[in-house]
Each structure stands twice: as C-alpha cells, then as structure tokens.
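Now for a sample.
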Amino acid sequence: MALSVIQACRSLALSTWLLSFCFVHLLCLDFTVAEKEEWYTAFVNITYVDPDTAEVRTEKTECGRYGEHSLKREARGVLAMPATTQDRQACDPNSRFTPRAHGAWIALISRGNCTFKDKIRHAVGHNASAVVIFNVGSSNPNETITMPHPGTSDVVAIMIPEPKGRELVLLLERNITVHMHITIGTRNLQKYVSRTSVVFVSISFIILMIISLAWLVFYYIQRFRYANARDRNQRRLGDAAKKAISQLQVRTIRKGDQETESDFDNCAVCIEGYKPNDVVRILPCRHLFHKGCVDPWLVDHRTCPMCKMNILKALGLTSSAECLNELPMDYELAVGGVALNAMVMSDDVMGGDVAGGA
C-alpha cells in the first residue's frame, strides 16, 4: 500500500512537471507570436529628362518602405528638397522647399538630427503631399526601417536606401525636374522574440532547473541515508550474530557417535559427512553443522541453513523489529522514505537490544 502511494505521488509530481513545462512552452510561443511587426514595401517610380541626351528616363524599384503611421496609399508629385545644403534634414520648422513645378510635390529629406515626426510635420507644413526620407549612416547601404512618426498619420511617408537618396539629391542639385510616383508594394509580417519573451523564458527555465536540481539533491540524500542505514544495520546485526554464535553449543565428534554413521545427514553447508574429531556447532533448533562451515553462514544470514530459524530471536537477542531485516530491501521504496525510516527504527531497536544483551 505504501509503495503504491509513493509511486502515485511520483507519477503526479512528474506529470505536474511535464505539464508545467508544456504550459511555459505554450506561453512562450504565445508571447513570441504576439510580438510581430507588419510593414509594407513601396514601389518608387521616378521620371526625368536626361539633360545630356534629352531622353526621358524612367526607373521603378521596390526600394521604399512605408512608415509605421503612414497612410498606405499611392502618392505622386514633383520631387523637392530643402533649399539650403545645411538643412537637408529639415529639422528647422522654417525650412524652405523649392518645387520645380506647380501642383502636388513630394519632399526629399535626409535622416538625422531630429525625429521622423518633426521632419514629416515640417514638410507637411509647407504643403508637401508626401515625404521621402533616405537612410544615412547605416552599415547596410540598402537598409530601410519602419519609421515611427505618431501624430502624422494623414500623410504618405516612406524611407528609401541611402544610395537611392544620394542619386536623387544629385539629380535635384543639377536642377533636373524629377517626377515621383509612390505605390504600395508587398505586405510583410515579421515575427520576433521580444525582450519580455526572453526574460519570461529565462526565468521559467531557471525555475524548472532549480526544481529539478532540488529533486536530484533530495534523491541522492535519501540514497545516501539508505546506504548508510543499511551498512550500520548490517554491522550491528553482524555483531549481534557473533554474540549469538558465542553462546551456541560446540561439540567434538567421537568415534562411534551416530553422526559418523553413513545414514546420518551430511553437513548442509559443505555437503560432507562427519568424521571423528570434527568440531560441530549445535543450533537452538538442534541442527548441527561443521563449526568452520556454519559460523561464517550465521554471521551473514543469522538463520539455520536448513530450517531458517533465526538464532537471534531464538536466543532472545533482538525484538520483533528484527523481522524487518528478513524482508528484501526495496531500493525504490527506500528512496521514497518508508523503508528507510523503518530500517533506521529497526537499527535503533537492534542497537538497544544488543546493548541490553551485553
């Protein structure tokens, strides 16, 4: 019954641990999926007249990226940038833009020195229909980001890579009129692991590791206690057995004794007959054996090799707790604590009985 209860508790503990691990794993997945970014690419179509060949050139590339708070729609107009080279970032509210044609125009601004929100707001304040910000100083020349610009969600705002921005700046500096048409490109959904998820997973993993380590420490402590109690019990029982052996009757076989007859039982330990001058040990159950054969047996087993009578109980050297020693020691049960506690109790009782007999 005790073994069944312990096994049930262990199964419950293992099931709880596995369920906790699965629950943490599912929560981590949920956190990871919840942290995602949706962004759109932008097709940038520019048209201008090459002053050297007088040919109309058109280029269309999917190099833009809509801002986080930008309107997701198309925009078109003549490209314009701040009039002064010192104010290419448009961080000054009084920045002047000089479009080369009437009607809708798009502001071309360099990244840096102020927030995206300020740049867009200053350009819109001068009636820009859209804002194009080109990246500057990135390790990857073709990198663009999803610009955050809260509060300016009523305008189209995109970012383009630095090489494309520099190319457009050179065209405008040569007084070339550049027409730009921005259209929506590909929708992207990027999932990523946030810091919250990383911290949550780390803490959960550490907690599970601490629980596992505590269980292992408890397991090996119980195992050590079991082995120590078993060795102590065996030593004390061995001492009690030697004391009991010293109290058993010893006799020397003489010529003509019935033990020397051919129909008498042999020694059950060595399976040899008795001869004159052999020294035999007579047990309380009246079975006799060669002294040199049965003494080591009694030290290890403390029972008659034939009828299994316990010599310690027969001589009154131990209480009924000695019966626990006759049962097989279940290691798994001992680790659970039941057999171990019983063994320690038996050990203490045995020590008191042996001391009292002495």
The longest strand covers residues 36-49. Residues 212 and 240 are 42 Å apart (CA to CA). The domain at 36-191 is CATH 3.50.30.30 (Glucose Oxidase; domain 1). Residues 319-358 have pLDDT under 50 and may be disordered.
